[in-house]
Amino acid sequence: MPPDTLSQNRVCVKTALPTLLVCMGALLVACDDPANVGGDLLGAAGGDPFNAVEPLSSLRAAELKQPATSPPRVLTGMVQDPVLGQYEVQGYFDITAVTSEDFRAGTVEAVELRLRRTYVYGDSTSELRAVLRDIGEDWDLDDIPTGTSFATGPIITEFTFLATDTLVIVPLPDSWVSEHDSMLRDPDVGNLFHGFRIDPVEGNAVVGFGPTGSTLFATTGADSLFYPVGKAYPFVERSASADIPGNRFLMQAGIGPNPEFSLSVPGDIYTSDEPLSINRATFTLWADTLTFRQNTPVHFERPLLRTLDLYSRFPGDSVYALAAQSTMDDQGRFVFESRALAHIIQESITENLVFEIRMPDSRNLSTLLPSDQAGYYYYHNSLNPMLFYDADAGDRAPAGFITLTPIY
Amino acid sequence: MPSLSFSCAGARSARFVRSLAACAILFLSTAMLAVSSGMAQDARDGSLYSRFGIGALQLHAGGQGTGIGHAGFALHSLQYVNPNNPGAWADQVLTRISAGFAYQNLVISDKNKETSRLGSGHLSGIQLGFPLIERKLGIALGFAPFSRVSYNVANEGTLFSGDPARPDTVGYLVNFFGSGGIQQVTGGLGYRFSPGFSAGASLNALFGLIDNGRETIFLEGPNGPLFLDTNLETSTRLNGFSATFGALFSVQNVFAEEDFISVGGAFTFPATLSAKRVTSLGENLDRDTLGTTISGKIDMPWQLGLGVAYYPDTRWTLSASGKFAPWTDLRSTIPLPGYDSGTAHGLSDVVQLGTGVEFLPAGTDLLASWPARIAYRFGISWDRAYISPDRNMNIETTTISAGFGLPTLIPGARFDINMQAGIRGAANADLVRDVFYRLSMSINIGERWFQTPKLR
């Protein structure tokens, strides 16, 4: 090939080919825009979700267990609730051991209980009278059932205070001080001393002390110590009331029970041959706030369980898993819904799932409640109640709203 | 009959060709990996018609055949390995590797004049051929998509909560998507029985993975997410074999001196694909397998292709081809979209017709200028798809194509660029219209391999 022809060819290759490619590339530039074009071609291809309303079973009573991790608030008092009846609460509490060399070297001269009130249930103007006793045995909080009591000694002292008092100081008698002098100065005081129980004698309120700011204060000539409250447990007794309307289920902190229910309907859609996918699950439980509102005297405080957890238990399993959480809305409903709940139902779609409503973990609850509830966020050492409509309550009965998609 | 002579290439040129050949082999390996089941799953940007059956059947005619309307059953060229007719594989001089890639811009429109635009690229095919006995006995291997599934369409809806106390609504999309397809690896021989007749046979291995999915996606507001999306996906693995026999008749000096005409045909036997399907359900990638694997088989029909090509001189090629396959005989024991089990409802026999012309101004003159050595091609084709979502209407595709076969500085190597524009279906009540623009490029390299030099 002659050199000039070869040169012309190379120029052609170098200019014409890239130009051609660029022009065609420009023509073919496209952006992905998969709009809804052609959906009609698919015919009945499925995939459209639908809703199903599933009634839940009647609410059953599940035992309330005192969690070991609950904040140590001392609950004590007695109250006549116009709706729920008479309550008497004995407050068990222990102290946390602290010591110092100067304190151990001296002799305990005076001891007093300093109790900071953070909770009141009942007549806030009431005057309360109570007695203090030593606990006579070692005790622990690990999943103790409600209604458990522990041995106590004789009355140490009696004291009186108002439900509105924010700080109650209870001096302990000299005889008790001299009797417990060596024990209080022992570094192992936490094991040697088992704590106190406050028994109500008179009044129309249940109060809570602590968990912060409540201590046993002891002084020697050279030093003084604050023993903080270490653990607390309320022993609650309730006399039955005839004022609770029918078709209601009472859930109450401190005494229980917790409501439990099942999601299983005879011949329901889950047992059909058509497999389904769960997209959303919502359980709605209605609270009877009207009964409370209409039966609350002036100055009577009745803080409610406004935020609750829903736990689920797989069939054949005793371990519960947190499924959802709900705070009562302005219509008085607890609406439990979460992706976790949908997952749980999906995984056991044909089984008889059991659900239990519990009080939230105290560590999380403080961040969930509105600021006006902040003072009451230690549900586990309280008497906060909630009255639920039960299965026969018509359109206020507990119900599940399930969104499903047929698989085929 | 076409003939080709090569100028003496220098040592540099030879090294370059070997490098290109090595690159092509690497390309082939990579491409086979790329189109294998796993990596091809995310391509969802093709025609919605590919959802139905085993996907949209692919036409592969090589760099030359694509430019002339897929009219390749009678093509007779020393510069290309004819992928459509094993009978043409006897006539080989050089070891030849070709690989092609296509990019498609697709505009889908419906009766409401709504449109969506999608762009996608895919491997169009790879061919390897070499002579065992020069111009007597040749062998060819090929890889090309047999069918392709690639679509993505969404239907919108609104769901009322069903809770009378909270009458809220939520929007949702039901998104249908599919990807994958069936690939075909072909290997065979062509033998020249006489100067005017050659025949060949190939064994075709068919394999692939077709994924069809459906997602129900909820369009939640700021209070979400509370809904779990439903993601249902079926993966069907297919494999089977078929065989193709082809023949090519050539006659010289038919209408004029130096002209010749060739008539070719290829028959592919019916194939049975074994299928295994797994269905999984879940959210996003976290899916659970539903039930057990479903096994079945798909019976595909035979196929006959016939063509004629006329070469008035060394500059012109006129070609026409037709193909028929009785796809109404398709039977599948596993459910396929758009297919009524055991019946021919919605099925049609495949007919494909194509014709085209190639003009090479320089003919066999390798010393001509570069533009004169470009092969200019034009063609038109029409085909009828084997399955239609509308029982009363066939899916027909009309395509015009134009292309260039560009010579390179290396003798025996060509770079083919083809452009196609076509219309598939119709924008009526039951169908959509696809308008596609496709750019395909292929490189075609030839060199003497496996032959001992006569002089040392």
Give an overview in words:
The complex is a heterodimer of chains A (408) and B (456). With 408 residues, chain A is an alpha+beta fold. Chain A has helices spanning 3-28, 101-105, 174-179, 181-185, 189-192, 289-294, 339-347, 362-365; strands spanning 50-55, 60-62, 74-81, 85-95, 110-123, 127-135, 152-162, 167-171, 196-202, 205-209, 215-219, 224-238, 248-252, 258-263, 276-286, 300-301, 307-313, 320-327, 333-337, 353-358, 385-389, 399-406. In chain A, the strands form four sheets. Chain A has a six-stranded antiparallel beta barrel. Chain A is elongated. The model of chain A has no long low-confidence stretch (mean pLDDT 84). Chain B has one domain: Porin (Beta Barrel). Chain B has helices at 11-35, 62-67; strands at residues 56-57, 95-109, 115-133, 137-160, 169-194, 197-219, 230-252, 260-268, 271-283, 286-300, 303-311, 316-325, 331-332, 350-359, 375-384, 396-407, 414-425, 433-447. Chain B has a 14-stranded antiparallel beta barrel. The interface between A and B is large, with 60 and 70 residues.
Return the domain count of chain A.
Answer: 2
CATH class placement of chain B = Mainly Beta
Instruction: Describe the sheet with the most strands of chain A.
Output: 6 strands, antiparallel, barrel
Number of helices of chain A: 8
- Strand sequence of the main sheet of chain A, in spatial order? 3-4-12-11-5-10
CATH topology of the largest domain in chain A: Jelly Rolls
Task: Describe how the helices and strands are arranged.
The complex is a heterodimer of chains A (408) and B (456).
Chain A: H1 3-28, E1 50-55, E2 60-62, E3 74-81, E4 85-95, H2 101-105, E5 110-123, E6 127-135, E7 152-162, E8 167-171, H3 174-179, H4 181-185, H5 189-192, E9 196-202, E10 205-209, E11 215-219, E12 224-238, E13 248-252, E14 258-263, E15 276-286, H6 289-294, E16 300-301, E17 307-313, E18 320-327, E19 333-337, H7 339-347, E20 353-358, H8 362-365, E21 385-389, E22 399-406
Chain B: H1 11-35, E1 56-57, H2 62-67, E2 95-109, E3 115-133, E4 137-160, E5 169-194, E6 197-219, E7 230-252, E8 260-268, E9 271-283, E10 286-300, E11 303-311, E12 316-325, E13 331-332, E14 350-359, E15 375-384, E16 396-407, E17 414-425, E18 433-447
Antiparallel strand pairs in B: 1-4, 2-3, 2-18, 3-4, 4-5, 5-6, 6-7, 7-8, 7-9, 8-11, 9-10, 10-13, 11-12, 12-14, 14-15, 15-16, 16-17, 17-18
